[in-house]
């Protein structure tokens, strides 16, 4: 965290969230450059702050939004955004009824599906004459072994059951035969490339680099085959979406992809410090105050247990950014209402001093605060309300 940002935000009451706007803007430019001219669809879950979302979309390298819940997508569409793709299937009954009954929303929002049961659910809970735009998701996780062993050798995330071109074509035919839906796009996300940090000099780091290397050859082939099979059935698609912040270069090189979904790189949370191929600037921070000093080498912060989602472990804990030379106590870690920390820098801290941290994931920080203080040129230029600050609790 730059000293000018720390000074500007020093008087804010803790806990507080801060955005270094100059770093944020440089990340926008860097991500557009890495995508090589392929449009980036902004993953709203990684920002959860409307002003930040709007600022990114002002840049010509970015087009459209990848939302994470249907109520959020409806909010964004009513706010004037005309191209909102829901990145995950939805079972929100009220939101589906609202979508089905509103022609403008139906034109602006695309639902994600990967099973006939999704279509059945739409018909059961939100019947009506309006046609819903849908996109199908294919799975491009890496399965390096034969089918009988696949349950034990799988790298990526479990999202869609559509893994092969024949399955994609069959599902496209099913969608085409259904009334009330129109297939307009596809998504195939290579999480084992985009989301796995690969810089560690450990056996795990070596394994991740092997997985990434093998996947970089496997993903374009399988994704391309699925896209071609769907186009043979449904005709030209409006979009084919893939990738993430960690795979902008490789995904943009895939000729079957028309756009890339990305969002974490704008804030560049702590998990993105561990990628080899690129390095964005840390742009989002949160501050906690020292409220106790039980020993000369231990200080206690008020709050701090803002752990990231995912498999529990030390790599889910916030990273202490400033002062340098501080770390958690093994027995307590990052606590709900207090977090004791230690290290040589603790000797220089007193009650009322500020410690700055970074969340491991990008958008989850916005669920903990009501607004971000936005710092530029060493001053707080404005405050951006988060979804939470606007009273939204989408997920």
TrEMBL record:
Write one Pfam family the protein is assigned to. Answer: Ala_racemase_N
Extract the InterPro entries matched here.
Ala_racemase_N (IPR001608), D-amino_acid_metab_enzyme (IPR051466), PLP-binding_barrel (IPR029066)
What EC number is given for this enzyme?
A: 5.1.1.1
Where exactly are the transmembrane stretches of this chain? none
Q: Which residues form the Alanine racemase N-terminal domain?
A: 19-194
Q: Which domain of life is it from?
A: Bacteria
Keywords for the protein's UniProt record, in alphabetical order: Isomerase
From the UniProt record, which GO molecular function terms apply? alanine racemase activity
Report the protein name in the record: Alanine racemase
Which species does this protein come from? Answer: Gulosibacter sediminis
């Amino acid at each position: 965290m730059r000293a000018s940002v720390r000074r500007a935000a020093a008087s804010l009451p803790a806990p507080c969230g801060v955005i270094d706007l100059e770093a944020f803007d440089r990340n926008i430019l860097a991500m557009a450059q890495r995508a090589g001219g392929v449009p980036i669809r902004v993953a709203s879950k990684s920002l959860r702050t409307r002003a930040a979302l709007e600022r990114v979309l002002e840049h010509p390298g970015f087009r459209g939004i990848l939302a994470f819940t249907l109520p959020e997508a409806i909010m964004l569409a009513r706010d004037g955004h005309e191209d909102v793709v829901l990145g995950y299937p939805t079972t929100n009954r009220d939101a589906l009824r609202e979508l089905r009954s509103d022609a403008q929303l139906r034109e602006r929002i695309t639902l994600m599906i990967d099973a006939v049961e999704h279509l059945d659910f739409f018909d059961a809970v939100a019947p009506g004459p309006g046609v819903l735009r849908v996109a199908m998701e294919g799975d491009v996780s890496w399965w390096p072994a034969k089918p009988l062993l696949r349950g034990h050798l799988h790298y990526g995330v479990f999202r869609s059951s559509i893994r092969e071109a024949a399955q994609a074509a069959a599902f496209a035919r099913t969608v085409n035969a259904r009334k009330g839906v129109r297939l307009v796009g596809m998504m195939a996300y290579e999480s084992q490339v985009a989301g796995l940090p690969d810089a560690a000099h450990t056996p795990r780091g070596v394994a991740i680099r092997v997985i990434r290397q093998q996947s970089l050859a496997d993903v374009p082939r399988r994704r391309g085959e699925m896209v071609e099979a769907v186009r043979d059935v449904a005709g030209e698609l409006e979009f084919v979406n893939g990738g993430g912040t960690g795979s902008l270069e490789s995904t943009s090189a895939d000729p079957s992809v028309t756009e890339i979904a990305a969002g974490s790189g704008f804030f560049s949370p702590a998990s993105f410090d561990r990628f080899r191929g690129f390095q964005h600037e840390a742009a989002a921070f949160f501050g906690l105050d020292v409220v106790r000093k039980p020993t000369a080498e231990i200080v206690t912060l008020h709050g701090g247990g803002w752990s990231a989602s995912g498999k529990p472990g030390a790599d889910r804990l916030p990273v202490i950014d400033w002062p340098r030379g501080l770390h958690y106590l093994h027995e307590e870690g990052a606590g709900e209402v207090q977090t004791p920390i230690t290290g040589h820098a603790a000797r220089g801290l007193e009650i009322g001093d500020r410690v700055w941290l970074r969340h491991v994931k990008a958008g989850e920080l916005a669920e903990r605060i009501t607004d971000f203080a936005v710092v530029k040129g060493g001053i707080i230029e404005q405050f951006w309300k988060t979804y939470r600050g606007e009273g939204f609790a989408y997920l």
